[in-house]
Specification:
Blueprint: H1 3-19, H2 23-31, E1 36-40, E2 47-49, E3 56-58, E4 88-100, E5 105-113, E6 125-129, E7 137-141, H3 142-148, E8 155-158, E9 165-172, E10 181-184, H4 190-199, E11 208-214, H5 222-229, E12 233-237, H6 238-242, H7 251-255, H8 269-300, H9 302-310, H10 315-347, H11 349-356, H12 367-384, H13 386-393, H14 397-402, H15 413-434, H16 439-464, H17 473-484, H18 486-520, E13 529-534, H19 543-553, E14 556-566, E15 583-587, H20 595-598, H21 608-615, E16 631-633, H22 637-641, H23 647-654, E17 658-660, E18 666-667, E19 670-676, E20 695-703, E21 715-717, H24 719-725, E22 728-738, H25 744-757, E23 761-765, H26 774-802, H27 804-812, H28 818-868, H29 885-906
Parallel strand pairs: 5-10, 7-9, 16-21, 17-20
Antiparallel strand pairs: 1-11, 1-12, 2-3, 4-5, 4-8, 4-11, 6-9, 7-10, 8-9, 13-22, 13-23, 14-16, 14-22, 15-19, 17-21, 18-19, 19-20
Length: 919
């Protein structure tokens, strides 16, 4: 019991320290054996950076940076000409693409790097095989092999490529074990694939280039890094990482507060306080569980302790003996637990590294930390033995030798302290819910209140005894025995209380959040309706085959095929700025545009009252639904699938007229579509007051009534209307309604068919909100149940030790064998029931407090947004407090029942008769 937590904590400490890299190890995994890694900031202006190169900002800050200086695609490489003269440099180029695997398509990083250069040492580790040396060869990461189904010797083909590459080896990235990557020699992978993609009309690759650089001497000093920043370059330098400059020498920290770049990099006082609270409560739980166990040992050895008193020993000696036992057991637990924790980390190193996703820098032992963890076990063992030691020392010599139990007066101070703690903790938690303080205040107040309930446990156990008059004989005897011997009952009940309270608190909070998510859930489509769509416009040629596969694998009642409008090359992405690409935009009449969108500073351009009023304006209504394509080409089948029953909309599509679902875009029965053919000219569009450059097409349109829902689609164009505009179309996907609910097997078949075709597509079926808290609640119930059964079992063992003489007397006078089992079962079950009832009540306080705190914060944000026009009146926060009755039912009924049955099963029916001790 004492060693188990030490095993876990020492293993965690040893693992985390081993996983922490030294500065030199960390920078080597980033830049290999080079002095620095240099890359472009892609801002086109001088920048300031953090010393480690993880963050940077334009000189002057982002408030004056409009992005107009960004280098355009195809512009000359800005890095290599800016490197110091005589520098040795190796180019490292990466780009993301999809690669065909045995299972379908896999998002993979493609990389070109000259691995023969000594500058790359430390970047990669060869697992088996070899690194590529010529064109047509690649090496892949072990993660790619695992997820692709390939092996060394297989051929791999990037999507869109006409060439296959032979896998000649597998390697791993020490800091990114889960990364899927394909490595090729320079010039053999990215450029050929980019040319093939562009020739087919698909978007090309967008490589990111950096250089591993060695200049000798002192390396890339901070002054050299700042000079590179002036050329819009970002540098990760070994010299700067190992010897970082003072904050006063970092221009970025003079321009922006350092705290802005340090979020999440260290433990805050709140986090440390929370950790200390958790450790303290864990120690309390162990003491509450271990204390009765020590009491069992002390009770079984009371005759030996009585002999010590009979031979001149006083109370100090008795206490010392029992405390020494706790000290020895704690020390043994500390040694065994620490040794096992370290051994487990060493034995499970590969498993731990896979779990963390990075290799250890080496085994790092911190003797002081491990010594502190071991000391925790010693202190816990000593504390757990305090109450049994005091109790044993108060026994008279005669009572110890004869086995008789004396009468001990109830402690009157402890209940008073408990009441004060409950009242104070509840007040602190309530204060935390009504003021803008950290949620840790609520948690801390709840913990204090819980400790108060623990202190009140003896009194509460006595109150439970009043129910004994209505119980049958065996449970009445068990209850009265528990009440009369509160010294052994109360710690076990308190241990159950603490475990159950934590589980109930988390379960109530999680269940309440699940109810809130269910309320806030917005369906993407009508219930039982689905959408087949490709994730990339370049896959338009595969859409017909996808539609046929859908109809074959899933039972459909209706399928509505939809196309998209095309400007330029059909494989261009919607907002691509590549040459030959374009798009279609809906242009709303100026008087029907939301004033927020036209004002220079958005909602901030208006007074709070004006912004609040405008948010209720129909022109500023927020779209609840999003669709990949807002303008689609389809017939009246689409309206049927989307449950649009407006006869006018159906008739309009049949007659060749467009249908609009957003009245802001329609004026006098007309809709304006703007054809954007120069994507570069529209790059900066989006500022208030600016008009998107392009050619307009005005179409007659039918406006659907307000009750009709387009589910993210703003305009449906029939084929006749598209033909009149002179625009081209390309297949996009299909909306469909189902004939019943598809089985898991049918879903897997269509997913497998998509994978087999190697198309990046998805099938989404609207099934309503799917909660995900059931597994967590089950785990919490199981945890609380195990702790409850353990604590109740310990208390039952102590009760049997106390009642051994009475049980032997019952056996001697002819009591039935089942009496022993029945009494043991009821003792265990009643202790479990008392702990569960008290724990369930105590656990509701922190959950309610945290939910009220969350409601207050959301209400504050709602009022702030409402006053400034960011939210509407309908967005009132909904923060319910919902009790998980199923979880509580399982704790209140099943756990005590299981504890009672288990105790009855493991108790022997017949106890050996013994002669009464002399005296």
């Amino acid at each position: 019991m004492l060693a188990l937590p030490i095993v876990g904590v020492s293993a965690a400490d040893f693992t985390l320290r081993s996983a922490q890299l030294s500065p030199d190890q960390a920078v080597t995994r980033q830049i290999g054996a080079a002095d620095a890694r240099v890359s472009s900031s892609n801002m086109g202006v001088p920048v300031y950076q953090k010393p480690d190169g993880t963050s940077y900002a334009p000189v002057g800050g982002f408030k004056d940076y409009d992005g107009g200086s960004r280098p355009e695609e195809g512009s000359p490489d800005p890095v290599k000409p800016a490197l110091p003269a005589g520098a040795e440099a190796v180019k490292d180029s990466t780009a993301y693409s999809k690669v065909r695997t045995r299972h379908g398509l896999l998002d993979t990083e493609l990389r070109e790097l000259d691995t023969n250069s000594p500058l790359t040492a430390g970047l990669i580790t060869v697992d088996h095989g070899r690194l590529p040396g010529t064109s047509g060869e690649v090496a892949v990461t072990t993660a790619f092999l695992k997820n692709s189904g390939y092996s060394v010797g297989s051929s791999v083909t990037p999507r869109g490529s006409n060439s296959s590459y032979v896998i000649v080896g597998a390697y791993e990235l020490p800091g990114e074990l889960r990364k899927e990557e394909v490595l090729a020699p320079p010039g053999t992978l990215l450029a050929p694939l980019d040319a093939v993609l562009k020739a087919s009309g698909a978007p090309g690759l967008h490589p990111r280039d950096s250089y591993l650089v060695r200049i000798g001497g002192d390396g890339f000093t901070w002054n050299i890094v700042k000079a590179a920043n002036a050329k819009s370059l970002v540098v990760v330098s070994r010299a700067v990482t190992l010897d970082p400059p003072a904050d006063s020498d970092v221009p970025l920290y003079q321009q922006e507060p350092k705290e802005q770049f340090e979020l999440g990099t260290g433990g805050s006082p709140v986090e440390l306080a929370t950790a200390a609270t958790v450790v303290g409560l864990a120690m309390l739980e162990i003491c509450l569980l271990a204390g009765p166990a020590f009491a069992v040992g002390a009770r079984r050895s009371r005759r030996q302790l009585g002999l010590v008193g009979a031979n001149g020993g006083d109370r100090r000696h008795i206490r010392s003996i029992v405390l020494s036992g706790g000290l020895v057991i704690g020390a043994v637990a500390a040694v065994i637990g620490t040794a096992l924790g370290v051994a487990l980390t060493v034995a499970l190193r590969p498993v731990l590294e896979d779990y963390l996703g990075a290799r250890f820098g080496g085994f790092v032992l911190r003797p002081l930390e491990l010594g502190g963890i071991a000391l925790l076990a010693v202190v816990t063992g000593l504390l757990a033995a305090v109450v049994p030691a005091v109790t044993a020392s108060r026994q008279t010599v005669l009572a110890s030798l004869t086995g008789r139990r004396g009468i001990r007066r109830a402690n009157r101070v402890l209940p008073v302290l408990g009441l004060i703690a409950v009242a104070g903790g509840a007040a602190i938690a309530l204060y935390g819910t009504t003021t803008r303080v950290s949620p840790t205040v609520v948690a801390g107040g709840s913990a204090i209140a819980e400790l108060g309930v623990v202190a009140l446990t003896p009194v509460l156990v006595g109150l439970f005894g009043r129910f004994g008059r209505w119980l049958p004989l065996s449970p009445r005897l068990a209850l009265r025995d528990a009440v009369r011997n509160r010294g052994r009952t109360a710690p076990a009940v308190a241990a159950v209380l603490a475990a159950v309270a934590g589980s109930v608190a988390v379960a109530t909070y999680e269940h309440s959040q699940d109810v809130q998510k269910r309320h806030e859930y917005v369906a993407k489509l009508p219930q039982g309706t689905g959408l087949l769509q490709t994730s990339s416009n370049s896959a338009h040629k595969e859409v017909p085959a996808l539609r046929e596969a859908l109809a074959k694998q899933i039972p459909l009642t209706q399928r509505a095929d939809v196309d998209r409008l095309v400007v330029g090359k059909p494989g261009c992405e919607s907002y691509s700025t590549e040459p030959g690409c374009g798009r279609v935009e809906i242009i709303a009449p100026k008087e029907q545009r939301c004033p927020f969108d036209e004002a220079p500073n958005g909602p901030a351009s208006f007074s709070p009252q004006q912004a609040k009023e405008l948010r209720q304006d129909w022109r500023c209504k927020r779209d609840e639904y999003n669709a990949q394509q807002q303008v689609v080409v389809a017939d009246e089948k689409l309206l049927s699938v989307l449950a649009v029953t407006d006869p006018g909309s159906v008739a309009a599509l049949k007659a060749g007229r467009a249908v609009s679902f957003d009245k802001r875009n329609v004026k006098d029965g007309k809709l304006t579509l703007r054809i954007v053919t120069d994507p570069k000219a529209s790059r900066g569009f989006g500022k208030p007051g600016e008009e998107l450059p392009g050619e307009d097409r005005v179409l007659p349109v039918h406006q659907a009534p307000d009750g009709a829902q387009g589910w993210g689609i703003h305009v449906v164009l029939p084929a006749a209307a598209v033909k009149a505009t002179g625009l081209a179309t390309a297949p996009f996907g299909s909306y469909f309604s189902l004939d019943g609910t598809p089985t898991s097997e049918q879903k897997q078949k269509i997913d497998g068919e998509i994978d087999r075709m190697g198309v990046d597509a998805s099938v989404r079926i609207e099934a309503g909100y799917q909660g995900d808290d059931s597994l967590a609640l089950l785990a919490l119930t199981v945890f609380a149940g195990l702790v409850t059964i353990g604590a109740a079992g310990i208390a039952t063992g102590l009760a049997q030790a106390d009642a051994e003489a009475d049980l032997k007397t019952l056996a001697a006078v002819g009591a039935a064998p089942r009496v022993r089992r029945t009494l043991s079962g009821f003792q265990c079950g009643l202790i479990a029931l008392m702990g569960v009832v008290l724990g369930s009540a105590a656990g509701l306080l922190p959950a309610v407090g945290l939910r009220l705190t969350q409601e207050r914060e959301l209400q504050r944000l709602y009022e702030y947004g409402l006053a400034r026009g960011y939210t509407s009146v309908e967005d009132v926060p909904y923060v319910p407090i919902s009790v998980p009755w199923e979880t509580l039912g399982g704790l209140l009924v099943l756990v005590p029942l299981g504890a009672a049955l288990l105790a009855a099963l493991v108790t022997r029916s017949n106890g050996a008769l013994a002669r009464r001790a002399a005296g």
